[in-house]
Design brief:
five-stranded mixed β-sheet; 253 residues; four-stranded antiparallel β-sheet; 5 helices
């Protein structure tokens, strides 16, 4: 797993990362059912395992990433196709992720500076680039929805180019957070956090992503808090960016 993360991020991992992220050498991939109607596991292999943790410190879910170091550039196995002919995902999230996060490095309870992003690899790449700042808590949200939170339906707007059914413009969830949303609907940031960096994935559709990031910034706004969304170059995320920049160089913690 350490080799996987170094190849994906361009940085050697700080030992503190492995307090949170664990390795399973022969992890079952459950999908579908066998001829007897039982749950089937068409694949077993190395996997990275991380916990979703609530603000109260309870484990609410599990994030699984299957690994294949022979399959560059993302080093994920080919798991075959589902019934619709789509590639089976190499990442799975089980349990509850909404309102929880994946701790990766640093202290949740002490640090007044936080770095949040969707993916584990993205956040760890940024942490490595910052040389594992001891004043910072680094965490992943699992996906953009858990980072941004639900939108006020009135703020939705038509996408300027993408069409949906009946050739109508696809609706984009707007930049305004839903009013009076529960804490369990999206990741929360404690009041003592003064500096919040939100890492954006530049390889996602820009209009949907920009609206979601604006919504996250508005939702997590607090008196005295500075929120900074960081965008990588178009078509990149921070993991792919730093992996390319370092190209095999070892950056030690």
């Amino acid at each position: 797993m350490a080799a996987y993360l170094q190849r994906r991020t361009g940085f050697e991992m700080h030992p503190g990362v492995f307090d949170h992220v664990r390795f399973s050498p022969d992890h079952s991939y459950w999908h579908g059912k066998d001829e007897m109607g039982r749950m089937a596991s068409p694949w077993q292999g190395p996997a990275m395992i991380a916990a979703f943790v609530s603000p109260a410190g309870d484990v609410t879910g599990c994030h699984e990433t299957w690994i294949d170091l022979a399959s560059a550039p993302k080093f994920r196995p080919d798991l075959g196709l589902d019934a619709k002919g789509d590639a089976l995902p190499t990442k799975k999230m089980r349990g509850t992720k909404k309102g929880s996060l994946i701790p990766l490095f640093g202290s949740f309870n002490i640090c007044a500076r936080w770095v949040l992003g969707e993916g584990i690899e993205t956040v760890l790449a940024y942490a490595g680039a910052e040389n594992w700042r001891p004043d910072t808590f680094y965490a992943a949200t699992g996906d953009l929805g858990n980072l941004a939170g639900p939108a006020d339906p009135k703020s939705a707007f038509p996408h300027p180019t993408i069409k949906g059914g009946n050739n109508q413009a696809k609706k984009v969830q707007g930049p305004v957070p839903k009013a009076d949303q529960a804490e369990t609907e999206a990741v929360q940031v404690p009041d003592y956090v003064e500096d919040l960096i939100i890492l954006v994935d530049g390889d996602s559709e820009i209009m949907f992503t920009a609206a979601a990031i604006a919504r996250a910034c508005a939702r997590l706004e607090a008196p005295g808090r500075i929120i900074t969304p960081f965008w990588p170059p178009e078509g990149e995320d921070f993991a792919s960016l730093f992996a390319k920049l370092n190209q095999g160089e070892n950056t030690h913690p």
